[in-house]
Amino acid sequence: MKKQVVETVFDGKQLFYINFGYKFGQGTEPQFRLWIDKSFLTQEDNGWFVEFPIRNCDVMQMDNEKDLVVKPGDLNLFYFYIVPGYKGESVIDIIDTDQPYQSFVFINEDVDDTTTSSKGALILTRSNKVKIRWHRNGKLYDDQLPEGVTILYSDCRRETIPNDKVIEYL
């Protein structure tokens, strides 16, 4: 998944970041700010972009626990976000990998006539795939599953199935 990054200049140095997580009514402060080394970015006509998962990286969490710095390393950083139904919420139930992992879970909350709460996560691991069990509620569109399992692969593939337990019986 490709995401556009924000470019800023501080003390003559070009810096890039993406904000994750917000709560309506609590200002514009993000839950996390992911600062990204320029080597992971591509430039297009309309700005700078990063492709998730970010491969061959490492993440340092700063003392304030809000700023995360992505630099070259030997891990993979996956991004997962699940949208709820209208006036609903989404939940990440389980994150599963075949290697140890560190997750940075964030929440996007909108409080107006369409109160919603969406969950997302940045997952840092040596594994080449991450399996995520999730569910959501609210008024769903016909093509939205109420629950499921999604597998994210380091080669950018993504698979989703409503219930992975059926695999045991086939």
Please describe what this structure looks like:
The protein has 170 residues and is mainly beta. The chain has one domain (2-169). Helix content is 0%, strand content 59%. The protein has strands spanning 2-4, 6-10, 13-20, 22-23, 32-36, 41-44, 47-51, 54-61, 67-72, 75-82, 90-96, 101-110, 116-125, 129-136, 147-153, 158-161. The strands form three sheets. Strands 2-3-5-9-8-10-13-12-4 form a nine-stranded mixed sheet, with no helix packed on it. A four-stranded antiparallel sheet has the order 11-14-15-16, with no helix packed on it. A three-stranded antiparallel sheet has the order 1-7-6, with no helix packed on it. The radius of gyration is 17 Å and the shape is globular.
What are the salient characteristics of this protein?
170 residues; mainly beta; nine-stranded mixed beta sheet; four-stranded antiparallel beta sheet; 16 strands; 0% helix; globular
Strand order of the largest sheet: 2-3-5-9-8-10-13-12-4
**What is the share of helical residues?**
under 10%
The shape is globular
- Distance between termini? 31 Å
Beta fraction of the residues?
Answer: over 45%
Number of domains: 1
User: Which regions have little confidence, pLDDT < 50, spanning 5+ residues?
Assistant: none
Structural class: mainly beta
Number of continuous helical runs? 0
**Topology as H/E string?**
EEEEEEEEEEEEEEEE
Radius of gyration: 17 Å
Mean pLDDT: 92
Number of strands: 16
The biggest sheet amounts to:
9 strands, mixed
